[in-house]
Amino acid sequence: MARARLRELGIVTGILPTGPLNAITDVAGVRVGYATLVRDAPTVVRTGVTAIWPRGDEIWTDYVFAGWHSFNGNGEMTGLPWLAEQGMLGAPICITNTYSVGTVRDAICALAVRDGASQDFHLPVVAETYDGWLSDIASFAVTRELAFAALDSATGGAIAEGNVGGGTGMICHEFKGGTGTASRVVREDGVAYTVGALVQANYGMRDLLRVDGVPVGREIGPDIVPAHRSGPKPDGSIIVILATDAPLLPIQCQRLARRATTGLAWVGGIGANGSGDIFLAFATANHVNQHDKVSTVRMLAPNAMTGLFRAAAEATEEAILNAMTAAETMTGLNGRTIHALPLDRLQAVMRRYRPCSGS
Fold it and tell me: pLDDT tens-digit profile of 125-173?
């Protein structure tokens, strides 16, 4: 059965409407680019880089407000002390594998120099999850040029999911994981706001996997689809990037980032000790020019935030599931194989638990 997005399988989670693309790029101005590296010689490599531009090249001088949250901190996201201090992003964000964070972080700095960014210094945000089960991570295959390729190829519109970019070699709930995206739209005082999520999903135990509350991981256990581990070990990591066009201040972005935890929990993430579950949210509505002495900004009222919180949770949940339904079975390092979530079996399980769901 061909790989597909969750809704293409007739499975709908949540109640809020999606944006036109059901992707982080439903937030106007957001661009996403990938560089994917799959090779078998001289070493077996299944890795890559994902790049997210909050608002295109103008991000170097036209900053966005942002905030972050660590659900469990066994992972890395660079630039967080400065982000916490000033509450703004002035560069693209990248996600890659654990051993390549420094290379990709330096590549963003080099890109800023290459493109003549006027900032005095650069402390970009780069996050990671570990792909060493399928890829020879110790070969340090990610280069500055690969990061440039992801950054330079970023575009709006529909974006790829599954085994792409930084998500290429990732595993989720002991099925093939990777990159996924989704979006939700809410209305406050007659105005529509979009929240988009992009995830790099590489976490979780099989028995904890749920789809719309259905215990899919128990129904499609290792006796049906082999798992890559022979015992409970809920390690791994997930990075969640949330974007919104709602007018939020940095503390509100931080509050929004925390709600990715809810979406992760709905799918079956528990924030295991060995997991790096780090989330970042940015808001594009306000414009903070690098050279202005005073900026005029707007903010959504605190009592109007609940809809956005639900949107962040629902978008995160569906983005994770899209990563899994899009990802294909992959064989990598030492002949190890990670099997994709079987979509026909997923549909059958959902029909059994939700006979009127249309799946």
Answer: 999 999 999 999 999 999 999 999 999 999 999 999 999 999 999 999 9
Q: Answer whether 0.90 is exceeded by the pTM.
A: yes
Q: Verify whether residue 153 is a known catalytic residue.
A: no
Catalytic residue (choose from 207, 237, 245, 359):
237
Q: Reply yes or no on domain 15-222+232-329 having CATH 3.60.70.12.
A: yes
Considering 26, 212, 245, 277, which one is annotated as catalytic?
A: 277
**Does residue 295 have an active-site annotation?**
no
Which of these is catalytic: 275, 292, 295, 359? 275
Q: Is 237 a catalytic residue?
A: yes
3-state secondary structure the chain: CCCCCHHHHCCCCCCCCCCCCCCHHHCCCCEEEEEEEEECCCCCEEEEEEEEECCHHHHHCEEEEEEEEEEEECCCECCHHHHHHHCEECCCEEEEEHHHHHHHHHHHHHHHHHCCCCCCCCCCEEEEECCCCCCCHHHCCCCHHHHHHHHHCCECCCCCCECCHHHCCCEECCEECEEEEEEEEEEECCEEEEEEEEEEEEECCHHHCCECCECHHHHCCCCCCCCCCCCCCCCEEEEEEEEECCCCCHHHHHHHHHCHHHHHHHHCCCCCCCEEEEEEEEEEEEEEECCCCCCCCCCCCHHHCHHHHHHHHHHHHHHHHHHHHHCCCEECHHHCEECCCCHHHHHHHHHHHCCCCCC
pLDDT per residue as tens digits for the range 84-113: 999 999 999 999 999 999 999 999 999 999
